[in-house]
Amino acid sequence: MVDGFKVKGKTPLNGTIKVSGAKNAALPIIIATLVAKGEYILRNVPNLRDIRVLMKLLEDLGMETEKLDETTYRIVNNGFKRNEASYEIVKQMRASFLVMGPMIANLDEAVVSLPGGCAIGSRPVDLHLKGFELLGAEITRVHGYIHAKADKLKGAEIPLGFPSVGATQNIMMAAVKAPGKTVISNAAREPEIVDLGNFLNKMGAKITGLGTPNIEIEGVEELHAVEYSIMPDRIEAGTYVIASLITEGELKIENANLDDLGVFKTELEAMGVKFEKEGNILTVIGDLKKLKPAKIKTLPHPGFPTDMQPQMMLLQALVNGGSSMEETVFENRFMHVPEFNRMGTDIIIKHGIAMINGGLSLTGAEVMASDLRAGAALVLAGLVADGETIINRVYHIDRGYDKLEQKLNAVGADIQRIKLDI
Ligand code: UD1
User: Fold this and answer.
1) pTM of the predicted model, to two decimals?
2) What would the CATH number be for the domain defined by 23-229?
3) What is the pLDDT of residues 83-115, one digit of tens each?
4) Do 23-229 and 2-20+232-420 have the same topology in CATH?
5) Which numbered atom of ligand 1 lies nearest the CA of 94?
6) Residue nearest to atom 24 of ligand 1 (CA)
7) Ligand 1 centroid to 142 CA: how many Å?
8) Would you place residue 249 in the very low, low, confident or very high pLDDT band (cuts 50, 70, 90)?
9) Exposure b/e, 130-166, CB count within 10 A at least 16 = b
10) Which of 188, 247, 332, 417 could form a disulfide with 168 if both were Cys (CB 3.0 to 4.6 A apart)?
């Protein structure tokens, strides 16, 4: 049996919904505590399954972790007790491959399991490994594990063939202590990269160019433990922006920083949406019946975020007229399309582009969450569908949304957690 959601549609949403700390910033920052010894305090950490899995991995490597309150963790790094991150843990969460950077920064030898694929694509790690090799590590691949000999790292020029978020983060962590200068060109520019860089700089690293395609790292000998507060989750914020538009209620979103979402904001404005911000509270104004269709293409930041693609496609499906969505970041990220179509949308995929005939109304159905963001989009679809929607495999949603159903229920949704056969 697995957890599912039963969503009753067409309940108006009203009130304030608060955005938690960013999963995709918290994961690399927690991993970055492996870079230097000492006692760390991390605040605004979201309450997620992925975070709990990661804490297990840190403990396995010899760290002490303690949850001080709902959003605060204490992590004590007294040095590595093992130099191997096992498949058992890495297979549960791809981001755990990022431990490789801090491991090779500190250990002469490190062994980390290859993560394997996932529903949205094959997701190789070749760019991470190429970066480590350019820094001077000797990399071999044995029985599904990467072995690195890393006793002589040195700053290097590292051009990335694609601005991979994970490769940029892994290489940054590997390079902070490497003597000399490292330059990562065509680096990822996502706000989570900036948050990780700010954390490392607070620890004593010398990183410049964060948020640009050229990141420069001057190697330092020692770094130290710090206290840090994780940035708010821009994808969670964007998910609530879509929830607000499609339910046509009066939702107020706390801690939403739209500037972090690249062209998401300008695309919505072009459709006719307006935003009002008062202090920390964002209000979204737009009449669903009057919004214009949109042609959208996902791209690395500051382009349209692939993690907002399923939620945006739902909005496109509810707006009158023909829209399209092209996915260029992941090769297989349209698993939600047949599920949406079960609920009454008219979307067909041709050559990697989803063609959306918008403006149809949705009816509740039994559907399956294939990954985290697809799962969230199905919850949103359930909110506007006629009748009841049953969403299976919500463990994908629990990986990355902090109390999604409680937060939505508190503003008027009717979502029940139920047990289902897988
Ligand atoms: C991160 C985010 C994820 C988001 C993605 C893109 C975390 C924990 N996850 O994932 O939510 O959807 O960025 O914004 O932060 N690639 C290679 N070789 C590599 C690495 C990546 O070919 O060595 C390819 C991938 O297969 C994919 C693309 O690059 O097609 C983007 O991947 P990447 O930016 O690395 O995403 P992640 O860091 O895995």
Assistant:
1) 0.97
2) 3.65.10.10
3) 999 899 899 899 999 999 999 999 999 999 998
4) yes
5) 39
6) 123
7) 23
8) confident
9) bbbebbbbebeeeeebbbbebeebebbebebeebbbb
10) 188
